[in-house]
Amino acid sequence: MYYRGIDGYDMALNSAIISDPEVMGGTPVLAGTRVPFQTLLDYVESGAPLEEFLDDFPSVSRELAVSALQQAGDLALAHARTA
């Protein structure tokens, strides 16, 4: 099942990345946490291993982090195909 996200893209209801005005003012976070998705991207961009991110943010499971990165990649690819 899908819903229309703020940016106009269809998102799975079991999304790994959520944006809720009640959680951190709507900043996209990893589902079930208050960890901004941008923080995960910053770690990856800096070349830090995923283990370092997971050690620094124990509320995030490996499965959730990988799912969020896959979701972002899928969205980027879908957007690139429509451009």
Question: What would you say this structure looks like, in words?
Answer:
The chain has 3 helices and 4 strands; from the N terminus they run ββββααα. It is of the alpha+beta class and 83 residues long. The protein has a single domain, classed as Winged helix-like DNA-binding domain superfamily/Winged helix DNA-binding domain (Arc Repressor Mutant, subunit A).
Features:
disordered N terminus, two-stranded antiparallel ribbon, alpha+beta, single chain, 83 residues, 12% strand, Arc Repressor Mutant, subunit A
Percent of residues in beta strands: 5-15%
Count of domains? 1
CATH topology: Arc Repressor Mutant, subunit A
Order of helices and strands: EEEEHHH
Whole-number mean pLDDT: 86
Strand order of the largest sheet: 1-2
Would you kindly provide a brief summary of this structure?
By secondary structure, this protein is of the alpha+beta class. It contains three helices and four strands; from the N terminus they run ββββααα. The relative contact order is 0.15.
What are the SSEs and their pairings?
Layout: E1 2-4, E2 10-12, E3 17-18, E4 29-30, H1 37-46, H2 50-56, H3 62-82
Antiparallel strand pairs: 1-2, 3-4
